[in-house]
Amino acid sequence: ALKTLAIGKPAPDVQGTDLKTGHKTKLSSLKGKVVLLDIWATWCGPCKAMIPHERALTAKLKDKPFVLVSVSADDEKKTLEEFLTKTEMPWTHWWDGPDSEVIKKYRVRAFPTLYLIDSKGVIRKKYIGAPENEVLDRAVEDLVSKANEK
Fold it and tell me: How far apart are CA 137 and CA 52, in angstroms?
């Protein structure tokens, strides 16, 4: 089954519960946009270190076909909610606990783990541990520019 997570393969469809709305959202419903799936936790130092850059990235790509989905592996939903009251992270957050479908299907063993999925729903990059800002930006912007090409 590991082959299914390979670069160039369709991203396994998963659904997560949107923290703001409480709605379940399927990954497949985001097709047409480039998706950065960031699987993290509030207790993870390297994950937290990425937040300022993720803020800049989402601001820069605000009107572009791009969505950042942070999937929290925190044990308690409350931990995440409290963290978000103190830390500005104005993008999509899913929380389904440490046993979430995302963590299982994407075989997450370390945090952060990031998957960059193109507008057609295909995995284009995988990062275990925080990638360099420039590396991430280049990969995201490349896919976003392609997403606009019909």
Answer: 13
